## 1
Amino acid sequence: MKLDSMYQEIILDHYRNPHGKGLRAGDAEVHHVNPTCGDEITLRVRLEGATVADVSYESQGCSISQASASVLNDLVVGKSVGDAQAVQEAFLELMQSKGQGEGDEEVLEDAVAFAGVSKYPARVKCALLSWMAWKDATAKALAEQPAIND
Ligand code: ZN
């Protein structure tokens, strides 16, 4: 796999110094596995009203999956659930672009570093693992909330 060297540096940086790693209190927990690579993540979401107050996780696996969880933490914590879901959708779209997408840096920040990964179908699952876990955990956390958002 060959990625732009600056992007590779961003990914390695998150891999070496993952942001927000470790399990903390949450409203919902999920465990997701990417069997093709062996990546695993246990992820918890804590909401405060309609805000993503925390995303905590324990994970193991390849550098792409680990770096992606760190970037996810950066991008969704502190945002409203709606804004965070929009970021998740933008990242999913980038990962499904088969190497054609560049990603909007205003929305995706460090996550644009994964653009080159979208050329490698096997690695797309690595990059998406934590994001799908987050989506799942957030849906669970919302389902357990009293209906205050609508
Ligand atoms: Zn992987």
## 2
Amino acid sequence: MLKPNLNYSNLKDSYLFYNISQKIAAFTAAHQSAEILRLGIGDVSLPLCSCVIEALHSAVEDQAHKDTFHGYMPETGAPFLREAIAAFYGTRGVSLDPSEVFVSSGASDELGDILDLFDRGCSALVMEPAYPAYVDANVMAGRKIIHLPSGKENGFIPLPDRDIKADIIYICSPSNPTGAVFDRASLKKWVDYANDNGSVILFDAAYEAFIEDPAVPHSIFEIDGARTCAIEICSLSKTAGFTGTRLGYTVIPKDLSRSGQSLNAMWVRNRTTKTNGVSYIIQKGGAAVFTERGRAEIMENISVYKKNAAVLMETLDSLGIWYCGGKNAPYIWMECPDGMDSWSFFDKLLNEIQVVGTPGAGFGSCGEGYFRLSTFGSPEATKKAALKLASLLRK
Ligand code: PLP
């Protein structure tokens, strides 16, 4: 009789977004004319920029003609896109060979698939509060998880503890959910730890485009020593609004090897076995993001989200509420007022001012007492929500 992967029974049920939608549904059923102001969303709200749309249209047209038609694309990504991404890293002072860049259909897919490179006996260290997929993908594989909590005392930026031995290390900077960022010195500590222990860092750079502080690295490969211990997973979802279009990339340096195996070569073998590449049309659209015009257009969209962040940060500042994030990230992680737990605060905001955010407890136990505000909503809804928050919490 077939035995399923019983590790799945070790997954904790994730009620976070289900609970939120149930609570909103119950509230709107009882108050049908209520306007719900959503600061909980992790999805973008602005459309793709015009140069991406033009590139997508023109790629569709290519597919209509025998001489420009493309069938299967290379499994590791189209050379034009791998080269464009490597050149983009070059503008940040990171030298990559295009063969170190793998095109993917998004960071979520890669964060799960990349675990194929590691033995099931490896441990995975997850800094919490964390994006829930890090834990779940490893539980599914039966790996031991090392939960590394963080808090207000370290600004939600934990540093390595040499007494803890971890094989796979997740770093998300800027972080979802806290919006906190690792500076060069703190990332260097993790890089040194990983090189000394033979660990591999999985650096999730999904929100790098939101970084505005020059002291904050966009890529782990800006740190000396990272080429021998890190893999970077990135996505155009939040950078360029590709959440529904699907495109990302993963960087695996040729200098990264463990037990004599090149992880870059292993990933080539994996991709050529398990995918047939990302669609030509989408890769063409993605390449437009790395042009000068593309950079300018995506930064215009990001500036709308940043203005939302400024409105919310100003409100929290005026209320004297502690928070992190917002400046280099599309999320603001605020302390719940008066020692409230995060679900009670959620209920209060929904019932009293119809503002929806995300309870911190959903991102690991050390997220209790905190609340995530997203800046991806419309400017109008964000301003209304900020005014309502101010008058509610000033009372
Ligand atoms: N990593 C983090 C930290 C995220 O917050 C998200 C999406 O919200 C992802 C990865 C997934 O991104 P993608 O849309 O590329 O799958």
